[in-house]
Amino acid sequence: MTREPVLKVENLQTRFKSVQRGKFVHAVDDVSIELYPGEIVGLVGESGCGKSTLGRTIVGLEKATAGRVLLDGVDLSTLSGAALRSSRRALQYVFQDPYSALNDRQTVGEAIDEALLIDGVRSQSDRNRRTRELLDQVGLAEVVKDRHTRELSGGQRQRVAIARSLAVNPRVLICDEPVSALDLSIRAQVMNLFLGLQKDLGVACLFIAHDLALVRQAASRVYVMYLGKIVEHGPSQELYDHPSHPYSQMLLASAPEVDPVAERQRKAPVMVGEVPSPTSPPSGCRFRTRCPLAIDECKQQVPPAYKLSPGHSSACVFAKDLHRGKRSALIAPPEANAA
C-alpha cells in the first residue's frame, strides 16, 4: 500500500449558527484524518459527536469553517468549475437512510442512469450496459431496473444506493452508518456485499458507525470521536485490545454482547453525566466532565495526541498508563457497587 494518502483532512472545522444569539455549534473542531488507497477506516462515537457532519463536510455537503480537504494532494477549496466537479465525483457518499436517499418517483434504472450521465456517459446503450453491470455487482436482478425505488425493500434500496455511488468510479466512499437502518436479518448480507465490492474495486472508505463490532470486522484503522474532536486513533486490533482514552474504554465496554445470555449477565460500566452542549464545550479535554480520571490539568489545556505505538495515539494525560493497563477509566455499575 502506498504511503501517500488518497484523502487527507487537515485541521477541519465545521460550525453552525446556534438558535441562541451569538453562539455557534462546534460540530467538528480541528479534526485531521487520512485514508490510503484501498483501505477501510472506521469512525466511531456516540450519536451527536459530529461523525456525520465530518463526513458531509468532506464531500462538500456542508461548508468547512476552517481547515482543508485534500484529494490526491489537491486542496478541494482551490478548485472550481469542471475541476471541482471531477474531484467531487471521486468522493461519494452512502447515506444512512436508504428510504430518503433515493427519489421515490424514479425507477432504479433512472436513478443509476442519472449518475452515469453526470459521469459523462452519453450513449444510452452504454448507460444501459453499465446499469446492468452495476445491478449485477450489488446482487440485484436486471428486472428491478424498471421498478420504482419505492417498491423496493430497505436492503434493496441500499444496494441501489451503493450501485449509484459506484457508477461514477469513485476513489473514496464516505459510508454513513450504511446498514444501521436495515433489519438485522439483512444487515449481514448488505455488509458482506459492501466488503466484497470494496475489496474488488480497491476504493478507500471512511466507515462511520456506532456498531463497534461491525467496525472491528471491517476497518484496518479506527478514529474515535467525541464532541467534535478525535480523541484516539490507531490500528483496529491495537485500539480494541488496548483502548487508551477513557472515552474509548467506556465506549467499548458499553458495546452489547452478541450472545444474548452473556448480554443479560453483563454489567456494563456507567457512562456518567450528560454530553455537554456543542455550543459551549468544556475547556481543556472535552471528555473531562464525564471522566472518572479527570484532574485539574484536564481543565487547563487541550491534551496533545500522545504516541503510544506505531500509528496509535491518544489525547489523554493518562494515555500511556491506560495503554499499559496501569489505569482504567471503567467504573462499576450501581448494582455492582451495591454488592
UniProtKB/TrEMBL annotation:
Coiled coil, from the record: none
Cellular compartment(s): Cell inner membrane
SUPFAM superfamilies registered for this protein in UniProt: P-loop containing nucleoside triphosphate hydrolases
Source domain of life: Bacteria
Domain ABC transporter span(s) in chain numbering: 7-252
Primary subcellular site in the record, as a coarse category: membrane
Alphabetical list of PROSITE patterns matching this protein: ABC_TRANSPORTER_1, ABC_TRANSPORTER_2
NCBIfam families in alphabetical order: oligo_HPY (TIGR01727)
Protein name in UniProt: ABC transporter ATP-binding protein
Organism of this sequence: Mesorhizobium captivum
